[in-house]
């Protein structure tokens, strides 16, 4: 997509949603990332880099990953001098503090884009006062064409001393919307048969990992290593403290057809009705439900394959409608 006149802007590192959809929507994903710790300084740098990139690229369509909300403001400045279409792809956090209280954010959400996309119907209903009436719904893409290549490579298992299908994977952001303390309490409840592998930047919440024997913290890993870890896992554990969240981990469970234990929220129950066990976020409940999944893994494996097929069909219908709506303006 190097010559594409459509771009998808992200302030941050790798984002699976934009990557999995890029071939269908024919855009180039552009990341702006810095190792600097000062958030304000980062955003100043990103702002200049983004404007410079847009001026050079002169895209016809600009997809904007939200949050952070300041990216909306920068794109708005650019469109004063451009006729480019703007598409807001809204993760749930854009509708919560601090992002939604950023000056002009509420106005931009309603008026700043040609089209605004949310990730499920529950979000569209819950935040109807903040978004246009014609807001579109597009689930995370629940399939990929890269599975066979990754499955044959087990280098990452050797790196973390893991055995295929003998560990549980928990993708984490280590943000406040995840029950990190309760997750760590699983250390004393997992037993010796299965490891818990937690991806993501654990240093945001955990200073010392040496005390954990049953939990493995990968830190930041490559996208290829991440795929390998998913494909060779037994169970996906996906947890959130909030409703309305779809969970990237749950969608990746669909992509790689791995049974899931997910937080018990109305949104997740509606989106993933089979192939899944729902749990409270305390360690006892999680341990009980993980063991239940292990004991009945064949049943849930069959169900998740069925659900993956159904969700792929649903996504294609939604994506066709979104593409048509964008084209028509």
Core attributes:
329 residues, alpha/beta, Rossmann fold, 2 domains, 6-stranded parallel sheet
Describe the structure.
This protein has 329 residues and is α/β, with parallel strands linked by helices. The protein has 2 domains: 6-138, Rossmann fold (3-Layer(aba) Sandwich); 147-310, Rossmann fold (3-Layer(aba) Sandwich). The protein is built from 13 helices and 12 strands. The chain has helices at residues 16-25, 39-57, 70-79, 105-111, 121-126, 147-151, 155-159, 180-184, 223-231, 248-256, 266-271, 283-295, 297-328, and strands at residues 6-11, 28-32, 61-66, 85-90, 115-118, 136-137, 167-171, 195-199, 215-219, 235-238, 260-263, 276-279. It has a 6-stranded parallel beta sheet, with helices on both faces. A 6-stranded parallel beta sheet has the order 9-8-7-10-11-12, with helices on both faces. Helix 2 packs parallel to helix 3 (70-79). The longest helix is centred in the last third of the chain and has 32 residues, at 297-328. The protein is globular. The mean pLDDT is 92.
């Amino acid at each position: 997509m190097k010559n594409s006149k459509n771009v998808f802007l992200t302030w941050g590192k790798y984002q699976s949603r934009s990557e999995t959809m890029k071939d269908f929507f024919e855009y180039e994903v552009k990341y702006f990332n810095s190792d600097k710790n000062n958030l304000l300084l980062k955003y100043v740098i990103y702002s200049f880099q983004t404007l410079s990139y847009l001026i050079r690229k002169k895209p016809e369509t600009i997809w904007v990953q939200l949050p952070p909300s300041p990216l909306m403001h920068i794109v708005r400045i650019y469109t004063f001098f451009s006729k480019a279409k703007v598409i807001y792809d809204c993760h749930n956090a854009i509708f919560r503090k601090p992002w939604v209280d950023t000056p002009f954010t509420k106005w931009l959400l309603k008026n700043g884009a040609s089209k605004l996309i949310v990730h499920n119907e529950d979000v569209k209903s819950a935040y109807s006062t903040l978004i246009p009436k014609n807001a579109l719904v597009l689930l995370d893409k629940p399939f990929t064409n890269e599975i066979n290549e990754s499955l044959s490579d087990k280098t990452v298992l050797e790196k973390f001393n893991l055995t295929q299908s003998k560990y549980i994977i928990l993708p984490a952001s280590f943000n406040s919307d995840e029950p990190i303390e309760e997750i760590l309490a699983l250390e004393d409840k997992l037993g010796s048969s299965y490891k818990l592998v937690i991806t993501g930047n654990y240093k945001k919440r955990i200073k010392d990992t040496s005390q954990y024997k049953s939990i493995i913290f990968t830190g930041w890993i490559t996208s290829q290593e991440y795929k390998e870890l998913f494909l060779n896992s037994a169970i996906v554990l996906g947890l959130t403290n909030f409703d309305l969240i779809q969970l990237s981990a749950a969608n990746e469970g669909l992509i790689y057809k791995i049974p899931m234990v997910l937080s018990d929220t109305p949104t997740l129950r509606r989106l993933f009705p089979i192939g899944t066990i729902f749990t409270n976020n305390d360690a006892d409940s999680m341990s009980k439900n993980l063991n239940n999944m292990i004991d009945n893994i064949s049943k849930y494996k069959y169900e998740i394959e069925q659900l993956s097929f159904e969700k792929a069909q649903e996504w294609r219908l939604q994506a066709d409608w979104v593409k048509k709506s964008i084209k028509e303006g």
